[in-house]
Design a protein that fits this description.
The complex is a heterotrimer. Chain A contains 15 helices and no strands. By secondary structure, chain A is an all-alpha fold. Chain A starts with a helix and ends in a 15-residue tail after the last helix. In chain B, the strands form three sheets. In chain B, strands 1, 2, 3, 4, 5, 13 and 14 form a seven-stranded antiparallel sheet that branches. Chain B has a five-stranded antiparallel sheet with strand order 11-10-9-8-12, covered by helices on one side. Chain B has a two-stranded parallel sheet with strand order 6-7. The chains are: A mainly alpha, B alpha+beta, C alpha+beta. The interface between A and B is small, with 5 and 5 residues.
């Protein structure tokens, strides 16, 4: 498979997963606001109820720059994070980018997949802005469903060769990063709530729902929700497909599948990067992640760093064909 | 005369570049009047050199450099012996009448050196630079018309190496009235082709063509003729062959010239050309040194 | 017997031509000639006007040619609704398959379906046999010609063709002088356009030797016809075309360098998504099971070329290129090209990769050289050409030029190196202004203009607005020159969909038909 094609498939998956997460984070937060009166969590100005979502996605500065003077309320969140075609962080823009990558590989993905992707893009372009601002839930749910459907079609129709492995690589790498981000963005608040003796649900539930992990968590932990258990679950639970560990293990598996090199032979830079990440995660007894001055925040920063490096390593191993000296040597990396 | 030439081309980039592909026309030509004893070319970063002869008979070296680099240096060294050219009296033996008879055959056989080329398009201006051949008598020497042409070119242009760039079109040169040896050569080619004489462009080296204070081309500010990389032309005289003429100095080529490549115009003989990947902008430096070297006793 | 309709062909006279007396005899019994009785004129063929042209289908109004008789029965008995249904089904199939092309100069639509007509064009085995022999002869001679002009140039030394004509040809590539090519073959794939004049004689209109396109329509047309109109195939033995891609792959593998071994790596080099024939590139690559690459996917290291895959660099042995010479290598040709591969020509020169079609074939499909092809055939093969050509005047020559300028309104003037029907002026259809512009262009650049008489191209019934109407057609068979010359039976029949139009090109209002060669 050509590098250019592989790279497009990889980014197609990353963009779709990104769009799905933005939509879900937004939707879960909107639901949370309905259940939880603003201010009980000491959250900030009452007219900026959606600020947490912006900060979760790292979009606060961009939002302030793009819409000076505008409060971070629901309409603003919809505008900046769903509808805005001028900036790259909205769902519309992300899906457009996904579609562009899909178009570049149109003859490699099945007709069905292309059509799903294409009609999805057009549907988003055709959204009625006012309606979405007023009632975003239906639209956001629909976005998540459509992307999930595209995943289903991809699995069924993309050849289970390099293309599909790269699709999974992109998807799970993006998911790992976004889950880590979600946790990192909400951890302090969650701890603060617990510390003050307030019920950890609903914030804990909201965090889990943002990762589509609520029911799964409940199956494992029947008792009262605890902040640390939520964090551990999202990080380390090996059996659930949305935890950071599971996602990185999937990336590792896919990346090894790409190379198909026999055991004992020299591995790709990508394999070294995923191996390193897994080692960090696997041997970390859950308690260790919370130790140290900043505890979990530090650990999550390290996880995100691993994700970045894995991304670079994948590009260098499979897409870039750069001369030797330009490759980052992971051997010497800390 | 035996010469040693060292020709170094250095590219500097303001950012890293990679995957560079280059073609060189730096190897002097082996001809009946010129013998190449040694030629070596190396690049830094190192690369494997491949060579072939192009359709004009020039020696072309080709190499690519894949690793990133901020500087590409190409160093060519050659040792060449040049034999005396036959005197131009021989050239004067070709009569205009003979030439007229041969014209159709010349147009067929030497088509590419008569047809307009990219750097020497058909221009009205050529008519002023060459005498009217139809007015000449059959008995006249063709070479007289040719030398009239290069005298006119020499008078029309002032030598100024910095007045133009590699890609300056020839009509601009005429408007400017100044140029390098490349420009003088293009203009003379235009004039001679207008006469119907097949003419080709020659790139090479000129050894001390102007000593300080002496032989400075008119128009230059009396400083020595500094540039060792030089261009001139060869005109085809039926019955004699290709005759080297230097329009910049308005005289035939002699022992001070080393021939490297021939072509229809400059585009066919570009000494170093290439493409690369990367966003670095390039800066070019060329350093040429030329020494006359004693003939050795040993047989080469 | 139902009263025969009035003989067609008399009412609308073609522009400038008196309608011939083609009154069909009202056949009440056996014809004088002893053939079967002409079937009653029925259904949609009612009122079909043969006009003053050679009609592919009908030898006389109401009387189909022998190889069209069965078709006449089937189609003649269909209703408009039925035929509309078939056409809709076919159009939907094309849409669904995404068989599109891009039209330059059409600001609105970027991708269009190449219009398809459901009435197939039929060739008898006998006429095909002659065409086949003629095409093989032609391509064989052209390959010898190309080898010669890039090597010893005997044909130029013997002054059969003037040297300036070759050296002044826009697509003559001096870089190829003295360069050897695999198996000595330059042209591996060619699409030759054939037309028929008023007497039904086949003539070669032009050869397309650089990157001929259209074969994907040949294959898809057949596929879709078989799907949507199977009853037509019931009683005909139509020679298959589906093996084209297999043959093409064999042709490409055949020219691989010896070191490549028994399974050479072949790729198709495309300019990319925005090229008008991109669909065909993806189609052919898929059908052959080879990788579709763009210039940026390839890299030359030393004297080998590789493609960039997710598993690293993979060496390539054969490139089927749909990128023009000018753009294929920025080191050798246009330095501003982003579509090419730097250093590729040096790899080619070293014999480490095969390129199909070879660099430099464009000189042979220069329309001024076309005029010499009969001479070329005689010179290399010592045979007379089997297929005729259209008489051609070269504006390069002063006498011929004057002849052309004096008769502009009657002639078709063409630029020597354009394709797709561009750069062409059809005298009888041109305005005074267009003729004036043409005159200026000829005078400014005579070498690059030729002229030919206007031909009364043959016509074929075409389904237009619920009925059959005659439209001009041509034929483009595709010849593969691998180990043995192979021609897929038939080829692309293009039809000028606008009434009276002679322009069949896809980019200017043309459409296509399925083309059948009957097995005998």
């Amino acid at each position: 498979m050509l590098s250019r094609i592989g790279e497009s498939i990889y980014w197609l998956a990353r963009f779709l997963e990104r769009a799905k997460n933005v939509a879900r984070f937004l939707d879960v937060h909107a639901q949370l606001l309905l259940e939880q009166p603003w201010g009980t969590l000491g959250d900030g100005p009452a007219n900026e109820t959606f600020l947490p979502v912006f900060s979760l996605l790292g979009e606060t500065d961009e939002f302030r720059a793009a819409w000076p003077g505008r409060p971070a309320d629901r309409a603003a969140a919809v505008d900046h994070l769903v509808l805005d075609l001028d900036r790259p962080s909205s769902v519309r823009s992300i899906v457009r980018a996904a579609r562009e990558n899909g178009r570049a590989v149109r003859d490699r993905i099945s007709r069905e997949m292309w059509e799903e992707l294409n009609t999805f893009h057009h549907a988003l372009v055709g959204l009625e802005a006012e309606a979405v601002r007023e009632h975003p839930h239906a639209t956001l749910i629909d976005i998540c469903r459509r992307i999930q459907r595209i995943y289903g079609v991809a699995e069924a129709t993309l050849l289970h060769d390099g293309g599909f492995l790269l699709f999974r690589t992109g998807l799970f790498l993006e998911r790992a990063g976004l889950t880590a981000r979600l946790l990192r963005g909400r951890w302090f608040k969650l701890q603060a709530v617990e510390f003050r003796g307030l019920p950890v649900e609903p914030l804990g539930a909201a965090i889990l729902k943002s990762a589509s992990a609520f029911e799964a968590y409940r199956k494992v932990h029947h008792a009262r929700m605890e902040a640390r258990r939520v964090a551990e679950f999202l990080l380390f639970e090996p059996a659930f497909p949305r935890t950071v560990r599971f996602c990185l293990a999937s990336v590792d598996y896919a990346v090894r599948g790409l190379r198909r090199s026999p055991p004992g032979s020299s591995s790709t830079i990508a394999e070294r990067a995923t191996g390193r990440a897994l080692a960090d995660l696997a041997y970390a007894e859950p308690g260790r992640a919370f130790k140290g001055q900043f505890g979990l925040d530090d650990f999550l920063a390290r996880v995100l760093d691993h994700c970045d490096r894995i991304g670079e390593a994948i590009a260098e191993s499979h897409f870039l064909h750069l001369p030797e000296e330009m490759l980052v040597d992971f051997r010497s990396a800390p | 005369m035996r010469y040693r030439v060292s020709h170094t081309t250095e590219y500097r980039y303001d950012d890293s570049v990679y995957e560079s592909h280059n073609e060189l026309r730096l190897s002097p030509l082996a001809t009946p009047l010129q013998r190449v004893h040694r030629f070596e070319v190396r690049s830094e970063p190192r690369a494997r050199m491949f060579s072939y002869h192009d359709w004009l008979g020039n020696v072309v070296h080709y190499f690519n450099v894949h690793p990133i680099h901020e500087r590409l240096t190409i160093r060519a060294e050659s040792v060449v012996s040049v034999s005396p050219r036959p005197k131009s009296d021989v050239w004067r033996q070709v009569a205009v009448g003979d030439f007229r008879r041969e014209r159709d055959r010349l147009r067929e056989t030497y088509y590419e050196f008569l047809a307009p080329s990219t750097r020497v398009p058909a221009l009205e201006a050529w008519r002023d630079l060459a005498p009217d051949i139809d007015a000449a008598g059959d008995g006249e020497a063709l070479y007289d018309l040719v030398s009239e042409a290069f005298a006119r070119v020499h008078a029309r242009l002032a030598y100024d190496r910095d007045a133009t760039r590699a890609d300056t079109p020839v009509d601009r040169v005429l408007a400017l009235g100044r140029g390098s040896s490349k420009d003088f050569s293009h203009v003379l080619i235009g004039a001679l082709r207008g006469l119907g004489v097949p003419t080709r462009y020659v790139s090479g080296y000129g050894f001390h063509l102007g000593e300080p204070g002496a032989e400075a081309p008119p128009g230059a500010s009396g400083r020595p003729f500094p540039f060792l990389s030089h261009a001139w032309v060869e005109a085809f005289l039926p019955g004699v062959g290709w005759c080297g003429i230097d329009p910049t100095h308005a005289r035939p080529v002699d022992l001070r010239y080393v021939k490297v490549a021939v072509g229809r115009d400059y585009d066919d003989v570009v000494p170093v050309k290439g493409v690369f990947r990367g966003s670095g902008r390039q800066d070019l430096g060329v350093f040429i040194e030329m020494w006359s070297v004693p003939e050795r006793e040993e047989v080469d | 017997m139902a009263a025969r309709r009035k003989a067609t062909g008399q009412a609308q006279a073609a522009a400038g031509g008196a309608s011939p007396a083609q009154a069909a005899p009202a056949a009440e019994g056996p014809e004088a000639g002893g053939g079967p009785p002409a079937p009653p004129a029925t259904g949609l063929f009612d009122g079909y006007d043969v006009g003053d042209f050679f009609d592919e289908f009908f030898e006389a109004p109401g009387r189909p040619r022998p190889h069209y008789r069965l078709l006449f029965d089937v189609l003649g008995s269909m209703t408009r609704d039925e035929l509309d249904g078939h056409k809709r089904a076919a159009d939907a199939a094309f849409m669904g398959a995404g068989i599109t092309f891009a039209v330059y100069g059409d600001a609105r639509a970027v991708e269009r379906i190449f219009p398809f007509d459901p009435v197939p064009r039929v060739l008898s085995a006998r006429e095909w046999e002659t065409i086949e022999r003629g095409l093989v002869q032609r391509v064989t001679a052209l390959n010898l010609f190309l080898h010669d002009i890039y090597h010893e140039q005997k044909i130029l030394r013997d002054r059969v063709i003037p040297r300036p004509l070759i050296y002044g040809a826009r697509f003559f590539r001096r870089e190829m002088l003295g360069m050897d090519v695999p198996r000595g073959t330059y042209i591996h794939i060619v699409g030759t356009d054939l037309v028929r004049d008023r007497d039904g004689r086949y003539m070669v209109l032009e050869d397309n030797l650089r990157s001929p396109s259209g074969v994907s329509y040949v294959l898809e047309n057949r596929q879709i016809m078989m799907q949507t109109f199977p009853r037509l195939f019931a009683e005909h033995r139509v020679r298959p075309v589906h093996h084209y891609c297999q043959e093409l792959l064999e042709t490409l593998k055949h020219v691989a360098p010896a070191e490549a071994g028994s399974d050479p790596t072949v790729v198709l080099l495309t300019p990319g998504l925005y090229n008008s024939a991109y669909f065909e590139h993806t189609f052919l690559a898929q059908q052959m099971g080879i990788e579709l690459v763009e210039g940026s996917d390839l890299v030359v290291q030393d004297l080998r070329v590789f493609m960039k895959t997710i598993d690293g660099l993979k060496p390539i042995d054969v490139i089927y290129r749909r990128v023009d010479d000018d753009f294929i290598d920025p080191l050798t040709f246009r330095p501003d090209s982003l579509l090419g591969v730097p250093g590729l020509i040096n790899v080619f020169r070293a014999g480490n990769v095969a390129i199909a079609n070879a660099i430099g074939t464009g000189v042979a499909d220069d329309k001024a050289i076309y005029a010499y092809v009969p001479e070329i055939i005689r010179y290399y093969l010592k045979e007379d050409p089997i297929l005729e050509q259209v008489p051609t005047w070269l504006c390069e020559d002063p006498k011929q030029r004057q002849h052309v300028l004096d008769r502009l309104p009657e002639l078709v003037v063409k630029a020597t190196n354009e394709s797709g029907g561009y750069g062409m002026t059809i005298g009888p259809h041109a305005t005074r202004e267009e003729l004036e512009k043409t005159r200026e262009r000829i005078v400014a650049d005579p070498r690059n203009h030729i002229a030919q008489p206007t031909l009364a191209l043959s016509r074929h019934p075409t389904y237009v607005d619920g009925t059959f109407a005659g439209r001009h057609v041509d034929l483009r068979p595709y010849i593969l020159f691998g180990e043995n010359p192979t021609i897929v039976p038939g080829g692309l029949t293009r039809v000028a969909l606008r009434a009276g139009s002679l322009v069949v090109n896809s980019s200017q209002g043309g459409g296509s038909k399925d083309t059948w060669v009957l097995a005998e």
